[in-house]
Structures are given as structure tokens and as C-alpha cells.
Amino acid sequence: MKKGLIFWSVLILVGMLMVVPNQAVQADEVVVGSKEFTEQIILGQITLMILEENGIPVRDETNLGGTLVLREAQELGEVDICWEYTGTALITHLGYAEAITDPEECYQVVKEEDYERFNLVWLDYAPLNNTYTIMMREDDARERGIETLSDLAEAINEGVEAPEPGSWQFAADHEYSIRDDGYPGLTEHYGFHFDGVQIMDLGITYAALRDGNVALAMGFATDGRIDAFGLINLVDDKYYHPVYNAAPVVREEIMEQYPEIEEILAPVAEKLDDETMSGMNAMVDIEGYEPDEVAEMWLQEEGLID
Question: Model confidence over 123-146: pLDDT tens digits?
């Protein structure tokens, strides 16, 4: 009896020793998250690939959801690293009422406060500024002499004839329609009102504008569909929208475990400007590539992975 008991005890112990290391590997994985739109998924895939290339175990939680969903997941420790925009952090996460339009100033504010309040570490930010933008069809804007949001306000207030669909209809996604740095303050800041606001998924706003279902639409300034669909960004000449430079944001615990992440991601951020990001977005949204394909091609072209 004793020999049998010893045998089974040893067997159980060996099994436990075999399981524990596997559990430790899983626990050490860096969970990379992203929001649900194209640019974010590409940035997430870039991060997954370059970290893995440098020997850091990763888990893919990209395309997780909207801004608040991703942020909650990171604060709860369910996501370790993601790319966030300085303006989003300033207004949405840190509760600032006023925009900061200087990129470096905005970055320094969110970097300091996000660490002090949430133990989140902001790494170097990229030149790309994916700010919210108000778009028109280029031909319609040129015909009416509209280049800026002030021009738009003047045209609407003076009763200038609207392009298709015949009234100043505006398309926006749900998030922009309720954000403090979105639609609620836009018309107040510039002193005008649309004839109507249509709420739709973000990916649909570009096509809705192109097809004449609305006269204007919101979007992101680095979206590849703007140029491809014959649209233009109206200049935010009164600086309503905050700057939205993208940067990797990492939980402090992960930075302590993998301090090399900062050095690994620095050249990625340095190379990501508006033109580069817009081109990658267009490859997904217009040409039909998958985000991971685009991420891999770009990383290889830049010599950041083999």
C-alpha cells in the first residue's frame, strides 16, 4: 500500500511540474489590444509582429472594441499594450474640457497624468495625427468655395444651396456624436447647425458621403478612403479638435518585466507619419489586404523584421 501511494504521489508531482512551466509561459505573454477600426488593427498587428520578432511572447486581442472598451480592458490588466491617441486620452480618459492643440504639450500632459493616475506608460509618439475631420466631396466644396470649417459655417448660415442630398445632412458614428470633443461642441464652437445628423457605423460614413446620401461626414484624417473617394478634409481653422498623435501605451508592470519594449517600438513610432498611415489604411479599406498582411509588408520594407 505504501509503495503504491508513493508511486502515485510521485506521478502527480511530476505532472504538476510539467504543467506549471506552461502556465508561467502563458502568464508572461504580452497581450496586445486595439480598437475596432482599420488603423488601430494595423498598429496592433505591427506591435505583435515586432515584439515577437524580438523574442517577447504575445497574445492577439486586436479589434477588441471601441475606445472605452479597450481602455477598461487595459485598466483591468486584460490588455497590456495598445496604441492610443493623445487627444483621446486628454479628453476622454483624463477628463479635460479644453483641447490642447500643440502636439508636444498634449503628449507631455497625458504622459505624466496617465502614469500618475493609472500607472500607464506612454512611449514615444508618432508624427501621424489621426484627428477627427469633417469631410466634403471635393467637387462640392470647390464649387461653393468651402475650404475651412468657418467657410462651412458661413455657407450654412447664409443659406447657400446644399449639395446632394439637397440639405446639409451630416453623417457621424455614435462615438463622435456624444464625445466631448466631437459633435456636441463642434457646432457651438463654429456657430452653425446641420439640417440633420445621421448616426451610422464609422466605416459607412465615407461611402455615404461619396454616394451623395449626406452632404458632409466625419472621419479620421489619416483614412485612405478620403483621397480614394474624392473627398477632402475641411481645415479646422479655429482649432476645435485636439491633436491625436498615436503612441504605444503600456502597463507599468509589463514595462518592468520587458523594459526593452521601449527600444523595440521607438523606430516604429518614428516612421509612422500621416502619409504612411493613410497608405496602409487604403491597402486594407480600398485594395482588400488584411491588416496583418499590410503590417508585415511595412515592417519588412522598413527593415524592422526579417
Answer: 999 999 999 999 999 999 999 999
